[in-house]
Amino acid sequence: MTGRNIICISASEWGGNYAKTIVEISKELSTRNKLLYVDYPFTYKDLVQFIFKGDFQSVLRVTGFRSRLKKIGQAEDSELYLYVPPLLFPVNFLSNGWLYRSLLKLNGLRLSVAVNKVLRDLDMTKDLIHINAFMPSLGEVTAKRFKEKTLLYYCYDEINAAKWLKKHGGRHEMNLMRISDGVITTSEGLFSRKKLLAKRCFLIKNAVNFSLFAKGKYDRIQNKTKIIGYIGSIDERLDYELLEFLFKQFSDYTFEFVGRCNFSAGEKVLKKYDNVVMYGPKSVEELPAFVSRFSVGIIPFAKSDFNKGIYPLKINEYLAGGLPVVMTSFAVLDEFREVADIAEDQYEFGKLLFQVLQSDSYEKQNIRIAFASGNSWKQRAIEFSNMISVIENE
């Protein structure tokens, strides 16, 4: 796909200390196309919180005292712009009544007027592709307001199981899927559910910045370490009963956690153990150095309705560095059975973890790396382009 205009309105901020699916795919789609990424729309409530925290950099950014629009440096054949939208009214806490619907429509009008002006200034109004990335409430009230040729809904989590979204999210998602030209899902679990509700549903799985995470390759056969590692958020997705079991069973190993912590109960569990180290959030560029330290990478997710819809970014990040992987059977993960070990319970998890720590080989490492190389974001962008061709040529 070349020469197209693309707008992405996203629930994910562009920056931050962890990889984001829609950000990575946007970078790839901006190659040979012009893409406007509309950053997460903050509300007046967020502004008050920024002020009380003393975060005046964010205050300046969201209030427009700094330029709302900037071009992000990419390759010469890329045009990628980041736009910080005007502040919106907080509505999610309201019940579904007249006030909620009125303020949501006002937010949609406010956002669409501002974004349409940017599209005109950038000469991006022709043959526009509009991607709404997991923000169905705003997607419903801004749909077709940019005179887009193609409207897509990008779904990367199970909205009905997300505590912070399920009050209104499921209703808006259903409405947005009905009016969208296509729905993109990122996991088998999401695809199996959303295809029943959307007129066109596609599966484009998550991937990895392979060239970056391949730097995490390390000769673990000759130079054994005793570090069991996890890259990702410390949050409600994790199985803390399983983790405590592992901390005790592998007491002679160090467990390293690299990522933000937004679940105080989970943090309290991890801090109880002397063989646990938490490094906090790190930039994506810093993560391969941690992968190279690990003896094995784990994905200790609990089995839940929310986790059923996950295709974990971290698995291909581990595999790109040749790292063995042990994970729970939290979702449909059959494609990884040749390159990772999947446990049904904590005892099997411990058994598999012990086995991979004792029996890794150069052949297995090379198989993992080859698998991850086929799951690059560039490949996903090709799949995305092919999907749009299918939609627009039907």
What does this structure look like?
The mean pLDDT is 94. The longest helix is centred in the N-terminal third of the chain and has 24 residues, at 98-121. An eight-stranded mixed β-sheet has the order 3-4-2-1-5-6-7-8, sandwiched between helices. The protein has a six-stranded parallel β-sheet with strand order 11-10-9-12-13-14, sandwiched between helices. Helix 2 (44-53) packs antiparallel against helix 3 (56-62), helix 4 (98-121) crosses helix 5 and helix 5 (136-142) packs across helix 6. It contains 15 helices and 14 strands. It has 394 residues and is α/β, with parallel strands linked by helices. The radius of gyration is 22 Å and the shape is globular. It folds into two domains: 5-207 and 376-393, Rossmann fold (3-Layer(aba) Sandwich), CATH 3.40.50; 210-373, Rossmann fold, CATH 3.40.50.2000. 39% of the residues lie in helices and 16% in strands. It has helices at residues 21-29, 44-53, 56-62, 98-121, 136-142, 169-179, 188-194, 210-213, 240-249, 264-270, 287-293, 313-320, 346-359, 362-373, 377-393, and strands at 5-10, 34-38, 69-71, 79-83, 128-133, 150-155, 182-185, 201-203, 227-231, 254-258, 276-280, 296-299, 325-328, 341-343. Helix 7 links the parallel strand 7 and strand 8. It starts with a strand and ends with a helix.
